[in-house]
Each structure stands twice: as structure tokens, then as C-alpha cells.
Give the backbone structure.
Amino acid sequence: MTFHKSLLTTAILATTAGAAFAAGHATAPMVDAGDQSVANGVVSADRIIAGETGWLVVHRTDAQMTPGAVVGHAPLREGENIDVAAILTEAVTSGEMLMLMVHSEADGMQAGIFEYTLGAKEDGPIRIDDQLVMTIIAAQ
Ligand SMILES: [Cu+2]
């Protein structure tokens, strides 16, 4: 009986989460990704919640956590994105740190084309309460 009860609880929680998400922005934007090998030339994020349609941008970074050169990007839909893969445009070696950041599709010249370069406002980073939406991983 305990088993069935826990299943029911899970189902109710899942329904509530789905309804909250459908209602708008109840789920905060975030990037969920872990340390990983990038030997296949791809950086992956397990799950990303984007506040608007835009881009996952992969920056080089370091212990100061300053976003550096862009070494990959992948499109995001508004809302939930599962298993997002960005092809690396430069070699990244084991031990390097990468910052996976959510960027906007706004202020560019062309829809659907990634136009950001470091410091530009085209397709620039999205800030929520003045904070970047990002996570930092290590290439293994
Ligand atoms: Cu960025």
C-alpha cells in the first residue's frame, strides 16, 4: 500500500509542476549541466529553462568566473529544453572550465542566426534580477 501511495504522490506533484509551468514563468530560468568529456567536440546541458527563445552560449571561463571567448552555441526554445548539444567551434582540452549561459535572440539583424560576439548587445545574455543565467562546468 505504501508503494501505491508514493506513486500517487509523484503523479500529483508532476501534474502540479506542469500546470505551474503552463501558467507562465513559475519555473525560474536555469542551466543544469555537469562536468563532462568534450572529446566528441560537443558540450551538453541536461536541462535548460529559458525565459524566451534564444541561445545556449558556451564561453571559456576560469577561476574568476569571467565569461570569455565564445566556443559554441545551440538554439533554445522558450521554456524547457532537454539534452541541449552545442558543437564546439574551437578545441577545448581536459581541465578547462566552460560557462554555459542563456542568451536572447533579441536585438540582432537576423532571426534564427546567432549574432553575438563578446560584449555585443545582439543576441546578448539574459539577466534575471541582474544575474546571468548560467552554470560552470569543467571539461574532463
Ligand atoms: Cu554569454
